[in-house]
Design brief:
The chain has eleven helices and nine strands. By secondary structure, it is an alpha+beta fold. The chain folds into three domains: about 100 residues, Acyl-CoA dehydrogenase/oxidase, N-terminal domain (Butyryl-Coa Dehydrogenase, subunit A, domain 1, Orthogonal Bundle), CATH 1.10.540; about 100 residues, Butyryl-CoA Dehydrogenase, subunit A, domain 2, CATH 2.40.110.10; about 150 residues, Butyryl-CoA Dehydrogenase, subunit A, domain 3 (Up-down Bundle). The protein has a four-stranded antiparallel sheet, with no helix packed on it. A three-stranded mixed sheet has the order 1-4-5. A hairpin with a 2-residue loop joins β2 and β3. α5 packs antiparallel against α7, α7 packs antiparallel against α8 and α7 packs parallel to α9. It is globular and about 80 Å long. Bound molecules: flavin-adenine dinucleotide.
Amino acid sequence: MLERLDDAFTFMDGLVDGQAGRWDLAGQIPVELLRTAGARGLLCAEVADSHGGLGLSSRDNGELTAHVGSRCSSLRSVMTSQGMAAWSIQRLANADQSATLLPQLVNGQLAAVGFSESVAGSDLSGMSTQIKLDGDSVVLDGSKVWVTGARYADLLVVFGQCDGGAAAVVVPTSAPGVSVEPVADPMGCRAAGHANIKFDSVQLPASSILGSPGLPLPLLVTTALAYGRISVAWGCVGILRACRNAAALHARSRTQFGKPLSEHQLVGRHLAELFIAEQVATRSCEHASSCWDAGSPDMVVATVLAKHVSAGHAATGAAAAVQVMASAAAQDGHVVARAYRDAKLMEIIEGTSEICQLILAQHAVATAE
Ligand code: FAD
């Protein structure tokens, strides 16, 4: 498997090829490049061999996600969305739907996942998108905001209220009534294809609903978010690796006051903090992935913990890297400047830091003896 993983690293390196800064400034990744990675199964590498995927373990997919995250957080974000769509299908769809949809996602079709709405961010119970059953059809009305990868997507997995509960529905972006409006000038992950989407009486076959209608909304969104969280957590490990590397190389090679920056103790403290951040984030992700790979019931909490720890450390670690590099990194296009903007957003997506803390607090209370 290591050989296969090394090949995947090399392939993704070849695709990025030092262009991440340019994509960030342009606000887009060439879509053919995303399809090339997708057709190799690399955007959702945990999809099983039986559906044409690479069937990577959570741990190996995590390392792939971190590797891509160290090169380009926008591309990593697209991987997170594709993986979250595939995971939602895998968990919620029936066998026929899985057999149709999963092979598409490892053959160059691109997907994104919409749950957030303008009035329903952290509190998804306020979601107002409606999925109405109508004989052999369903009709979708509503809107979603900030959907990562939506500008590139062929398919959307959309969550909404349905039949006294909730449902997830698969929607082609080409369907009449779907309009995709790019989010203007995002602060970070600028090439990740964020978009706001409107659904105006979109008619779909009833088979577009994944599994059954009328399921509890928390169950549905927690399913999708679990994958999103572990993927973002590993992406943050990648951000930290890139920042530690850039800051350490700079501190070793630049001299001020007659000695390398790294030998000034206050600079050394920043480097130590970066190293600690990278190590702690890595260990928390490894633990969460080992829970996924073992099918452990601890997986949900371990994933929230990994996401919270890694996102927080990525934000402070990227800030420390900017401090060490000072003017050398204080320009758009520099890997550390990009990491600084991208990392802050990791504390917002897939459950903000505060929402993660609330979940961890509930767990602490529930498991007290
Ligand atoms: P709000 O919910 O309004 O929160 C504002 C602040 O209040 C936050 O600090 C929050 O933590 C805090 N807060 C809220 N409630 C509580 C509480 N009970 N206790 C303590 N603090 C609280 N959505 C998708 O559906 N699909 C995507 O692919 C996607 N990608 C995204 C990518 C990026 C880069 C960004 C920025 C957002 C993305 N989103 C996506 C939306 C994202 O999920 C929401 O932004 C996030 O859930 C927070 O919602 P909000 O922005 O409305 O903030």
